[in-house]
Each structure stands twice: as C-alpha cells, then as structure tokens.
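Researcher: Sequence recovery benchmark, item below. Answer with residues only.
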C-alpha cells in the first residue's frame, strides 16, 4: 500500500533509542525545558548555521513570538504570501498586527517580489515570506527591497528544514526564522513543537524570556509572555531525528527528480522549485482536478491539498482581504494536488504513481 506519509516506518531504525531516551527522562523527572531541550537548541542552531535557537511549543507560537518581541506599533503591517498555512496569517493577527497579502509568483509556490513592491508602504514593518513546500523564496531580492528601510525579514521555515539558499541553510538567512516541528514536517517531533533561530542576541534574549512566561529566572517575570516551552521528551525525539534530516531530504529530492523527469501529461503542470528545495510537498496542477482525484482514488494512490484555499478565501480571514484577488494563489488552491513524497516510497510505488498520472 502506498502511504502519503509513514512516520513510524521512517523512524524504525531509531525507535529503540528514542524509547530509551524517554524512559530516562521519566526516571529523572525532567519534563520541561530539560537538558535535552538545551542540547537540541544548540544542535539545531549549529545545523542551520545560526548563532541562536530557542525552542517553543509549536510553529504558530514561533511566528507569533517572533512578531510579539518586536513591540511594533498597532497599525504596523506584515506582508505575507496569499498561499500558505493559516498560521502564517493568524500569528500576525494574534500579535496585534495587520496582515497584508501578496500573491505568489505564477510559476513558483513562493511570494512574488513584484507584489511585495506593490504592497509595501510606510506602515510595513515586516516581510514574512514562507518557503512553501521546501522551496526557498527569492531571498536576495527581498533583502534588496528592504535595504535601508525599517523593515525586518522574518521567514516562515516550517516546510523547509535543511533547505539551502546560495550555500546557507534556511534558518540563517533572515533576521528571525521560525520553524514548525509538527510530526509530519521534514523534521518533526512526536507531538507539537517549534523553534526559532536568529543571529541577533537582542532577539534571542527577548524570545527566550517571552516563551517562558516572560521569565529569565525562576519567579522573576519582567514581562508578560507566553507559556510556550518545549517538552524534554520532544527534544529527545528531535535530537535523534535531526541526524537523519539530510538523508531524508536527499530521498525527497530524488523522488522529486523522478517525478519532474517522468510526469509527461499535457493536462498536468509542474511548479518550479528553488535549487535546493527539500520538497516537503510535491504539488502538481491540473484544470481537471476532480477527474484526476477519482483516478488516484481508483488506483489507491493517496493525495492531499496544500492548500485548498488561499488565505483570502478562508472564512476566518475574508474580512481582512475583502474584494482583493490573488490569482496565482487561487489557481494553486483550485488546481493543486499534493502527491506522495514520503522518503520511504519504493521505486515500484513511484513507477505506479507516474504511470497513473501519465495515463490520465
Ligand atoms: C507554513 C506553515 N506555517 C506555520 C505552521 C504552523 O505550525 P504548527 O502546526 O506547528 O503550529 C505550519 C504547519 O503546518 C506551516 O506549514
């Protein structure tokens, strides 16, 4: 049976080690922000090539905390892409700021720099692109746009652990980087988890306190913060899994290469991904989505949508973006189908998937 994702199978080799780590944590009564958390933060910062990493409870909190610690005025605007998971927008709203949508490029899954230029104004304080599906956005162009302005670059890296942009890892190429470590991510815990990286001590200090109820020392709470701490057990899982991130990303890249080379059907379009994309998802586009879904179902091929709605189409967000159109994001929502890119897929599965797509 072809599986869209199979975390248990992926982690088979390290499960015993993880169980032993968990037993030790229970034995030592070391559940919250324990030494494994500190170790994971150190290892993850090193992996990304960033000076600092601060773990937290999930990716949504990572984004919200990164925005909160900036203490921006109420009317400040944050430019985000119109195609992403709802959390990117919710974090802006929950931080008390105003989300401004920019469409994605027609041929890639990431934010359009022309759209950023159209949306930028005197209230813009942050550009927050998403490296959607593991494809890195146009980092240098964004940096050029904000150069000399009081605008920060915070990237949502929740789908791009290990992706490389011009020799640097995602997590080290912006002012503040935010990652979800949700189980299904390229690096995922066995529950909710998140992490923030930065090269700036001033952000590191603020974020570290903020995620622990504004506390730098037990019972000293100098600011109002979140309770967004990482469980020691999740940190232990993540330490074990970090060692396999590059290998699993490589497997995803090989599957993507196979799809790109072999999917040949005029009814199916492929997106352009960045050079060292880590393929959290592989999304194909078709105007005949309903029919193709039926065909996939008939052949027991799992699929998903990332995402079936552009942000302006979500009922919770409609009032923010009334009457605005984002044709490229809306096309992706309407025509996109995510096909399996689970690193454990066997060659025979890939051959079958491509055969079904090409015969459609
Ligand atoms: C692009 C993006 N941003 C933010 C998040 C939110 O992360 P979490 O579910 O860990 O809160 C996700 C997770 O799905 C995501 O894919």
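Model:
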């Amino acid at each position: 049976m072809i599986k869209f994702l199979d975390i248990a199978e992926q982690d088979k080799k390290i499960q015993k080690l993880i169980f032993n780590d968990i037993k030790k944590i229970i034995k030592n009564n070391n559940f919250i922000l324990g030494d494994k958390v500190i170790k994971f933060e150190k290892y993850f910062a090193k992996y990304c090539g960033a000076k600092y990493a601060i773990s937290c409870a999930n990716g949504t909190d990572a984004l919200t905390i990164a925005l909160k610690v900036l203490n921006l005025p109420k009317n400040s605007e944050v430019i985000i892409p119109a195609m992403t998971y709802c959390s990117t927008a919710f974090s802006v709203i929950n931080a008390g700021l105003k989300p401004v949508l920019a469409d994605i490029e027609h041929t890639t899954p990431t934010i359009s720099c022309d759209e950023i230029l159209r949306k930028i104004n005197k209230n813009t304080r942050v550009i927050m692109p998403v490296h959607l599906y593991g494809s890195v956005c146009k980092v240098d162009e964004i940096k050029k746009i904000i150069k000399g302005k009081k605008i920060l670059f915070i990237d949502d890296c929740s789908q791009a652990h290990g992706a490389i942009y011009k020799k640097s890892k995602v997590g080290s190429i912006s002012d503040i980087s935010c990652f979800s470590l949700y189980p299904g991510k390229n690096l995922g815990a066995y529950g909710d988890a998140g992490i923030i990286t930065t090269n700036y001590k001033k952000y590191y200090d603020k974020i570290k306190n903020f995620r622990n109820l504004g506390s730098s020392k037990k019972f000293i709470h100098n600011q109002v913060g979140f309770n967004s701490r990482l469980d020691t057990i999740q940190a232990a899982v993540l330490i074990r899994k970090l060692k396999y991130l590059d290998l699993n990303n490589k497997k995803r890249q090989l599957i993507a290469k196979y799809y790109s080379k072999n999917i040949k059907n005029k009814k199916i379009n492929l997106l352009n991904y960045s050079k060292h994309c880590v393929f959290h998802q592989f999304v194909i586009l078709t105007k005949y989505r309903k029919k193709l879904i039926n065909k996939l179902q008939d052949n027991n091929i799992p699929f998903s949508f990332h995402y079936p709605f552009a942000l302006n189409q979500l009922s919770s967000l409609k009032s923010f973006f009334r009457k605005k159109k984002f044709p490229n994001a809306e096309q992706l929502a309407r025509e996109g189908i995510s096909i399996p890119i689970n690193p454990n897929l066997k060659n025979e599965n890939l051959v079958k998937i491509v055969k079904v797509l090409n015969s459609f």
